Amino acid sequence: MAYLCSALILHGCYYHVIHKGRNGSIYS
Fold it and tell me: Superkingdom of the source (predicted)?
């Protein structure tokens, strides 16, 4: 379960970084 939670958190952070890089906004 701990591994799953960590994977989801890392995926979420990576997703936000990609969107911030492309659109200049985390919420885009």
Answer: Eukaryota
Compute the distance between CA of residue 11 and CA of residue 17 in angstroms, rounded to an integer: 10
**Residue 17 is encoded by which pair of tokens?**
């970084």
Write down how long the chain is. Answer: 28
Domain that holds residue 14: 1-28
Whole-model pTM: value is 0.27
Number of domains in the chain: 1
Q: Residue 20 CB: number of other CB atoms within 10 A?
A: 13
